[in-house]
Design brief:
117 residues; mainly beta; seven-stranded mixed beta sheet; 0% helix; globular
Protein backbone atom coordinates (compact mmCIF):
# COMPACT_ATOMS: atom_id res chain seq x y z
CA UNK A 1 0.00 0.00 0.00
CA UNK A 2 0.96 3.68 -0.23
CA UNK A 3 0.27 6.83 1.70
CA UNK A 4 -0.47 10.07 -0.12
CA UNK A 5 -0.34 13.55 1.39
CA UNK A 6 -1.44 16.54 -0.65
CA UNK A 7 -0.45 20.15 -0.09
CA UNK A 8 -0.42 23.46 -1.92
CA UNK A 9 -4.08 24.35 -2.14
CA UNK A 10 -5.44 27.75 -1.29
CA UNK A 11 -7.34 30.81 -2.44
CA UNK A 12 -6.28 32.52 -5.66
CA UNK A 13 -7.79 35.05 -8.02
CA UNK A 14 -8.86 34.07 -11.51
CA UNK A 15 -5.86 34.00 -13.81
CA UNK A 16 -3.52 33.06 -11.00
CA UNK A 17 -1.46 29.95 -10.42
CA UNK A 18 -1.04 27.25 -7.79
CA UNK A 19 1.15 24.18 -7.54
CA UNK A 20 -0.19 21.13 -5.76
CA UNK A 21 2.15 18.51 -4.34
CA UNK A 22 1.49 14.89 -3.47
CA UNK A 23 4.08 13.25 -1.24
CA UNK A 24 4.18 9.47 -1.64
CA UNK A 25 5.41 6.83 0.79
CA UNK A 26 5.09 3.07 1.03
CA UNK A 27 5.18 0.57 -1.86
CA UNK A 28 6.26 3.14 -4.40
CA UNK A 29 7.75 0.54 -6.75
CA UNK A 30 4.25 -0.93 -7.26
CA UNK A 31 2.71 2.30 -8.56
CA UNK A 32 1.41 1.96 -12.12
CA UNK A 33 -0.18 5.38 -12.49
CA UNK A 34 -0.70 8.54 -10.45
CA UNK A 35 -3.53 10.98 -10.91
CA UNK A 36 -5.07 14.19 -9.69
CA UNK A 37 -8.84 14.24 -9.30
CA UNK A 38 -11.15 16.99 -8.15
CA UNK A 39 -14.60 17.21 -6.68
CA UNK A 40 -16.69 20.36 -6.61
CA UNK A 41 -19.70 20.70 -4.29
CA UNK A 42 -22.65 18.72 -5.61
CA UNK A 43 -20.62 17.16 -8.41
CA UNK A 44 -18.95 13.83 -9.01
CA UNK A 45 -15.23 13.38 -8.59
CA UNK A 46 -13.48 13.75 -11.94
CA UNK A 47 -10.04 12.98 -13.29
CA UNK A 48 -7.99 16.09 -13.96
CA UNK A 49 -4.65 14.63 -15.04
CA UNK A 50 -2.68 11.42 -14.81
CA UNK A 51 0.88 10.24 -15.32
CA UNK A 52 1.97 6.66 -15.85
CA UNK A 53 5.10 4.97 -14.54
CA UNK A 54 6.58 5.54 -18.00
CA UNK A 55 5.79 9.24 -17.89
CA UNK A 56 2.81 9.25 -20.23
CA UNK A 57 0.44 12.07 -19.30
CA UNK A 58 -3.24 12.56 -19.87
CA UNK A 59 -5.46 15.60 -19.20
CA UNK A 60 -9.15 16.35 -19.25
CA UNK A 61 -10.01 18.74 -22.05
CA UNK A 62 -10.93 21.68 -19.82
CA UNK A 63 -7.42 21.90 -18.31
CA UNK A 64 -5.29 21.15 -21.35
CA UNK A 65 -2.75 23.91 -21.92
CA UNK A 66 -3.25 25.26 -18.38
CA UNK A 67 -2.33 22.38 -16.05
CA UNK A 68 0.80 20.24 -16.03
CA UNK A 69 1.31 17.02 -14.10
CA UNK A 70 4.85 15.95 -13.32
CA UNK A 71 6.72 13.52 -11.13
CA UNK A 72 9.95 13.84 -9.17
CA UNK A 73 11.13 10.29 -8.54
CA UNK A 74 13.99 11.39 -6.31
CA UNK A 75 11.58 13.24 -4.02
CA UNK A 76 8.73 10.69 -4.38
CA UNK A 77 6.40 13.53 -5.20
CA UNK A 78 3.85 14.22 -7.91
CA UNK A 79 2.96 17.80 -8.78
CA UNK A 80 0.09 19.55 -10.49
CA UNK A 81 1.03 22.98 -11.79
CA UNK A 82 -2.14 24.97 -12.40
CA UNK A 83 -1.96 28.17 -14.41
CA UNK A 84 -4.63 30.55 -15.71
CA UNK A 85 -7.01 29.32 -13.04
CA UNK A 86 -10.73 29.84 -13.50
CA UNK A 87 -13.55 29.94 -10.94
CA UNK A 88 -14.80 26.63 -12.36
CA UNK A 89 -11.54 25.02 -11.21
CA UNK A 90 -12.69 25.48 -7.62
CA UNK A 91 -12.84 22.07 -5.94
CA UNK A 92 -11.16 19.75 -3.50
CA UNK A 93 -8.22 18.17 -5.32
CA UNK A 94 -7.23 14.60 -4.50
CA UNK A 95 -4.09 12.65 -5.30
CA UNK A 96 -4.60 9.05 -6.42
CA UNK A 97 -2.31 6.08 -6.97
CA UNK A 98 -3.03 2.75 -8.66
CA UNK A 99 -0.81 -0.17 -7.71
CA UNK A 100 0.07 -3.40 -9.44
CA UNK A 101 -0.89 -6.14 -9.80
CA UNK A 102 -4.62 -5.56 -9.20
CA UNK A 103 -4.79 -1.78 -9.69
CA UNK A 104 -5.80 -1.20 -6.10
CA UNK A 105 -6.26 2.53 -5.67
CA UNK A 106 -5.30 4.82 -2.83
CA UNK A 107 -6.35 8.39 -2.09
CA UNK A 108 -4.95 11.34 -0.23
CA UNK A 109 -7.02 13.48 2.11
CA UNK A 110 -7.56 16.24 -0.42
CA UNK A 111 -6.62 19.91 -0.61
CA UNK A 112 -9.03 22.77 -1.26
CA UNK A 113 -8.51 25.03 -4.25
CA UNK A 114 -10.69 28.13 -4.45
CA UNK A 115 -10.54 30.50 -7.41
CA UNK A 116 -12.28 33.82 -6.98
CA UNK A 117 -13.65 35.82 -9.89
Amino acid sequence: QVQLVESGGGLVQAGGSLRLSCAISGDIFRIVTMGWYRQAPGKQRELVASISSRGTTNYRDSVKGRFTISRDNAENTVYLQMNSLKPEDTAVYYCNAALSPQFNTYWGQGTQVTVSS
